[in-house]
Structures are given as C-alpha cells and as structure tokens.
Design a protein that fits this description.
Blueprint: E1 3-9, H1 26-45, E2 51-57, E3 69-72, H2 78-87, E4 93-96, H3 105-108, E5 117-121, E6 127-132, H4 150-160, E7 165-167, H5 177-186, H6 191-198
Parallel strand pairs: 1-2, 1-4, 2-3, 5-7
Antiparallel strand pairs: 4-6, 5-6
Helix pairs in contact: 1-6, 5-6
Length: 205
C-alpha cells in the first residue's frame, strides 16, 4: 500500500486562507481552514494506507484524528518542503494539501502497478495531489510554486524523468470566497460546508 501525506498549516488567524479576507474575517477564514483540514484528514483516515503522515507547519490541535504521524515542515520554499515530505517516505507515497475538502477515499486509493506517478491538476494551474512510486525529492526541487504554470511544470518534470504518469481528476482548491462556495456544494455534508453555512454562505442563506 501507499503512504498518504497531507501537507498543511496550523489553522491560526492571519496565517491561513488570507485570500478569504475579505469577505471573511481572519478568524472566520481560519475556522474555514480548520474545517477543510479536518475534512481532508477524515478522508485520509478512511483511505487504506501503509502510513498516514501530517506534514505540519505549526502545532496539532483537536482537529487531528488518531492514526497519523506528525512531522514538522522543513524550512525553505514550498518546493523544498514538498521534496522533504517525500524524502521521509520509504516506498510509494501520495501527497495532498489541505485545500480540497471535497476529496474522497476513492480518489486517494491509488495503485502504482502500471504507472510511476499520479498527478492531480488543480483548476488554478497548480496541483492538488502528487504520487510517486519511488519518492525522489529532486523531482520537486526548483519547480516554481503558486503560479498558473506550477502544475504544467511539475507534470513536465515527471515526464522528462521518464515516469509513466496517470492523471487524477481536476479539482478546485479553496483560495477565494467563490472557490469556497463552489467546493462546499460538491461536499455538502462535510465540516467545511457546515462552517460556510454558519457564516451565511451556501444553502439556505
């Protein structure tokens, strides 16, 4: 089976989901980030895996379910932090972020029998998932992060390395208020959708 990695920030006001402010306050944005992270971790916990690891910037809180190893993020840019997350794995690994609470166990159940990598593109041009049968940190180092070309550059890096790449469905990250409403509609029974509804957004507003 596969190691499942979640890279995340501790959901503290002013440190997470800053693009949600406005219309939300920093505290509200952090509450939504916590709900998104909780939904993501719950899905990972329900997915068959050899090991589940939270690669965390900050301290764990009550949103962390049992069954996860928690390791700190290394210093440096996001490419370095992602590379370090894979470097800590022994065997196949799939990494996701905390911004796609609509993710399901079916999406995260991967089989490397006939491919070397999984790539999950995001609608904003980045990627929401990256899986490697043989985790090689060099495949991530130097990839420009948080740009509209991040996903294309990362996927091209995999192909240039001679890897057989299987694409996962394109998902929408939660970055803006419009993203939040669209994603909540895709997973209406999760904590994220419930949190958004409490703020007056979504069904019944």
């Amino acid at each position: 089976m596969t190691t499942l990695l979640v890279i995340a920030k501790e959901p503290r006001p002013g440190r997470v989901k800053t693009r949600l402010t406005p219309p939300f306050t920093p505290a509200q944005a952090a509450a939504l980030a916590e709900a998104s992270l909780a939904d993501t971790l719950r899905t990972v916990a329900a997915t068959p895996a050899t090991r589940r690891v939270l690669v965390l910037d900050g301290a764990p809180g009550p949103w962390l379910p049992p069954g996860f190893d928690v390791v700190p993020q290394c210093p440096g840019g996001l490419d370095e932090r992602l590379a370090a997350a894979f470097a800590g794995c022994d065997g196949p690994a799939l990494l996701i972020g905390m911004d796609t609470p609509q993710v399901t166990p079916a999406l995260l159940t991967v089989d490397f029998a006939d491919c070397d990598a999984y790539f999950g593109p995001a609608e904003d041009g980045g990627f929401w998932a990256l899986g490697l049968a043989d985790p090689e940190p060099a495949l991530l180092r130097g990839v420009p992060m948080s740009t509209p070309r991040t996903g294309a550059v990362q996927r091209a890096r995999l192909v240039a390395a001679g890897l057989r790449v299987r694409d996962l469905p394109r998902l929408r990250d939660v970055d803006t208020a419009a993203d939040a409403e669209a994603v909540a509609a895709l997973a209406p029974h999760g904590r994220f959708a419930a949190g958004l509804h409490r703020l007056g957004v979504g069904a019944g507003r």
